[in-house]
Known about the structure:
- By secondary structure, this protein is of the alpha/beta class.
- It folds into 2 domains: 3-213 and 407-430, Aldehyde Dehydrogenase, Chain A, domain 1; 218-398, Aldehyde Dehydrogenase, Chain A, domain 2.
- It has helices spanning 3-19, 25-41, 43-54, 58-84, 121-132, 146-159, 172-179, 192-204, 227-239, 256-274, 290-300, 331-334, 353-358, 373-382, 417-423, 448-457, and strands at 87-89, 99-106, 109-113, 136-140, 165-167, 185-189, 209-212, 218-221, 251-255, 305-307, 311-312, 317-318, 321-324, 341-347, 365-369, 387-390, 411-412, 425-432.
- Helix 6 links the parallel strand 4 and strand 5.
- Helix 9 (227-239) packs across helix 10 (256-274).
- The chain is globular.
- It starts with a helix and ends with a helix.
- The mean pLDDT is 97.
- Nicotinamide-adenine-dinucleotide binds at residues 113-117, 122, 140, 142-144, 171-172, 175-176, 189-191, 194, 197, 212-214, 246, 336, 338, 364, 406, 411.
Amino acid sequence: MDIAAIALQVNSLKSFFNQGQTRALSWRRQQLLQLKKMTEDHEDDIAKALEQDLGKCRQEAWTAEIGYLLSEINHSLRHLNKWSKRRRVSTPMVAQPGSSFLLPEPKGVALIIGAWNYPFQLLLAPLVAAIAAGNCAVLKPSELAVNVSALLAKLVPDYLDQHAFVLIEGGVEQTTEVLKQPFDHVFYTGGESVGKIVMRAAAEHLTPVTLELGGKSPCIVDQNTNLKVTARRIVWSKWMNAGQTCVAPDYVIVSKDFSQPLIDAIKQELTAFYGKDSATNGDYGRIINDRHHARLIGYLQGQNIIHGGQADSDTRYLAPTLVLNPDLHSALMQEEIFGPILPIITLDKIEDSIALVNQRAKPLALYLYTNDKDLTERVLHQTSAGSVCINDGMIFMTNPKLPFGGVGNSGMGSYHGQFGFDTFSHLKAVMKRPFIFDVNLRYPPFNRFKLSVLKKLL
Ligand code: NAD
């Protein structure tokens, strides 16, 4: 779409929204069913595009993208009635008789900007929430996932109401132009630096934003754990999508005494998952583009690589790689890795991990593997993170009853399930009063008696 057409498109979505059709639950349900149909009809095409962009295998394409989106749609369809109902709250004595409630209303026209690592669901799961809440939306897929972007540009207009939804492909130039438009909500998934650009642009129109960012998610492993299951779950959540997952464990913290058993167990699970040569294993993904491949290779310069490290720039392959005790000031430990490299940091005592985590920006996720209740409580209460998972990896994302979002540098706002519905809704505060009992305590002329009664009531 050319730049001049963008403002016209957004205006036409606004006009459609103002006509009121999107408020009907029947319309919302129909659009959600259409999105479901689009996903089911084109499961093979979606999987193929993900394979082309990221070397994503069929099983990961289904579990982390296609099936994930379908379950979000089904959950929203099941709960739409309840979420959109007025939510009663109590009314204080001073406003009695009366009733109070929150009335969810759609915000209007939302902008949803997706990232490249899960390019299908990161664009469409927020859309599920936007539709459920009764909004129109502009969708901006990541230009780095070229094939998924092109496929969605073809499918979305075929399945969804074209008066309410428009997909705009393109890179920085298009996104910059889109961001100039006055939206009612901007939902952005991606890195921190662009997150600031998005927030600055939204500030021009005082538009609320949700920023789903990333960061370095720590993984603390205590000696008091089930070693085999711990290693397997770390390997699963780190090397899925070749480490290009916002909630992948970025680095492991372990006590010196326990580091060798953990390293051996991780190596064993890597071989069990991807065989002796992950380069020839169809379940192992590829890096999105040459720039990111070079960035990751750069992180390895001068590091103590204890496993992996093999790379092929022609196929954008980078082996599952372990680095022991990197310099905490090196790029590997300063930047979000977002690739298949796992640094392992050893400490004298696992309790010291809390201070190490707290020296850094608040992460999107924190993982703790332990059977120790006391350590669990200390980590929970003395650290901050968007989400915490105890004794597993990113499995927590499958629970739509948990909000998903960051804190501090890892983002603001959240979605999934009702949290997404509420993000794209304004919870309008309503109080209703009858005309009877119009007690004159609050009206002038004032006197001491009125004030003393009011003091007791308020
Ligand atoms: P990206 O390069 O795909 O950029 C994200 C979006 O921003 C794209 O749609 C792109 O077109 C747009 N964009 C890029 N430059 C822009 C500019 N100058 N102005 C306006 N828009 C611009 O993705 P990325 O930033 O490389 O994504 C990786 C980051 O995203 C990581 O930090 C990761 O942790 C984070 N992430 C977070 C989540 C989450 O749900 N919290 C999910 C996935 C990724």
